[in-house]
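Researcher: Hi, I'm a grad student and pretty new to this. My advisor asked me to get structures for two proteins we've been looking at. I'm not sure of the right format, so I'll just paste the first sequence and hope you can take it from there.
Model: That works fine. Here's the first sequence with its structure tokens right after it:
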Amino acid sequence: MRSSIALCIAVLAASLIAHAQPVQVITLDATINPATADFIHRSIERAAEDGAQCLVIRLNTPGGLLKSTRIIVSDLLTAPLPVVVYVSPSGAQAASAGTFIALAAHIAAMALGTNIGAAHPVGMEGGEKDSIMNEKATNDAAAFIRSISEKRHRNVRWAEEAVRKSFSITETEALKDSVIDLVAPTVQVLLKEIDGKTVTVHEQERTLHTADAAIVEIEMGWKHRILNILSDPNIAYIFFLLGVYGLLFELYNPGSVLPGVVGAISLILAFYSMHTLPVNYAGLALIIVGIILFVLELKITSYGLLTVGGAISLLLGSIMLINSDSALEFVAISWSVIIPSVVVTVLFFVFAIGMGIRAQLRTPVTGTEGLVGETGNALQTLAPTGQVRVHGEIWNATTSGSTVPAGSAIEVVRVEKLLLIVRPHSQ
């Protein structure tokens, strides 16, 4: 009798503890990149440490990088607690990389008016080599999504077609085709719908008790927000150009300080961003060559040919800078960023840097160097030394040739310390 009572008490206590466990919810409304992958990884760890009932990922993404997607999928498949991916709000999408993530969840759900699919890897078009590489990427992605679907008992055939044929479907079609588990308008409704469901976590069955669970919203921290912004190829490109502008401006105008500091910081941020992106080093080399051609234009008379070459090199390098073969969703620099950047760069080198170089090459107009070429009058007969007046000042002078009578006009040839070397000036 006592053992039966103790067992009932234990079961009741376990039930109360299960119902007391909160549900943690995070929102991922961004592309899939190293920053968002780390955010999901840390969120799963935190939810497990806090004893959460489950983690809900509110997802809205156009896609992202394959490497980051694999990391997220691995985290979902090996998560120590149930993970629910909820494509939300209405109008949201789980496209490309988002499809892999949704299929990898213990429970996949979608809000009304959402879509999932279009997971075909996008690479650079044209050429036999590109076709072969695209086929390899497609086969690899197809095998990847098949393994995920088999693991989570989802529609394997549709998943493969989403990769090979870029199929995309609505939430009602996804539910009908067993791509997702349910459709729910809100998180609250979602939690009530999944209450009592049993999922497998680390080969163990776990029943969810989410109907009355407290909802804890976990915001993305400032660190991940900044890293997410820096993972944008447009930001990386702009930082790189700003860094080049700043350092060159400092080199040609020593002592400015601020341009050099801004340039150095911008380059560091640009290199970090490029480290997280699939950078094509041929594109980076073309950008550097373009900048070198702009600098050479300022020192070599090419009648604009070097400027044209620099602009073309910069434009091609900007287009090629991000290697799209490594992305599930096309990750590239926007034309609305490339065109203004090329124009501004050309103007920067033609005017700003050009003015700095011309200032350095300009003939001095002050000091002793500024006297060269100036005219004056001999106060004494120079045979060969004497005194002359130049700019209202009296100087010791010597002739570089014949004797100069007093009162004659002279022209300064050069200056040696405080002695003027002069010659007769022909009127």
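Researcher: Oh nice, that was easy. Here's the second one.
Model: And its structure:
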Amino acid sequence: MSAPDWIAVDWGTSHLRVWGLQGDRVLRQAASDQGMGQLAREGFEPALLALVADWLSDAQVTPVLVCGMAGSRQGWVEAPYRAIPCPPLGGALVQAPCRDLRLSVHVVPGLKQHRPADVIRGEETQIAGFLAQNPGWDGVLCLPGTHSKWVHVSAGEVVSFQTFLTGEMFALLSERSVLRHSVSGWDDTGFTEGVAQGMERPERLLARLFSIRAEGLLQARDPASGRARLSGLLIGAELAAAKPYWLGQRVAMIGAAPLAQHYAQALGTLSVPVTCHDATEMTLAGLAAARALLPQTERPCVN
């Protein structure tokens, strides 16, 4: 197989994903658990080479475009946040130091919002990919994940955003709290019930979370229902807080199944129009758009 002419990298806290491309065509892909959280600064280049060394040519330098936590303060090289309002991509990419002369690595900066204080790192690339595929789109993006994001986009710029720890709270509660004994599997009815309760009375969230445990003990409630209700309660409380974003708006969901489907299902109960878009596809489209920001000497020739 021929060598890719560029490499796309999504470097999260827990995982590393890479794709070798010719133009916009994926030739190869690989992944590992060598996320930012497992690496010291000197470990980033070896972690990348462990996946892509066989893709590289000794006859040329391969551009590598990176989004995500590799650009954090604890990452490979810090890519300072850009202040909104601004396009999701813009300004200069930040070059990471490389010993292997076959690589030229550039990192996409994240975005920052001063009031209320908030940051985005990685999702800006998915937003850019979505806008590249949907030019002229105005509205709200929801990017569910460990830290879900609600983003208002207008005239090609990120205007405001809000982050919620919903995914991280679900992981902590389902794996490390007393609720771990009462949650497993999935039940759609339990999820719908949890969303309604989380939306209706978000101030009772902590009490209703414990009721999952109590109902398991006293009423032999199915753990599948408990797990789905836990997710629904958390997502419902998030939707209650994010109401200024989705009320009267169209929402584009960017995420991976099944989580994005759960959010779309929850918004459907509120009659919010939602379209769903694959997170990986948007990441690759965004990194392809970021290639235009490379220094002129590293941009591919267009015949």
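Researcher: Is there anything I should tell my advisor about the second?
Model: You could mention this: The CA atoms of residues 12 and 284 lie 15 Å apart.
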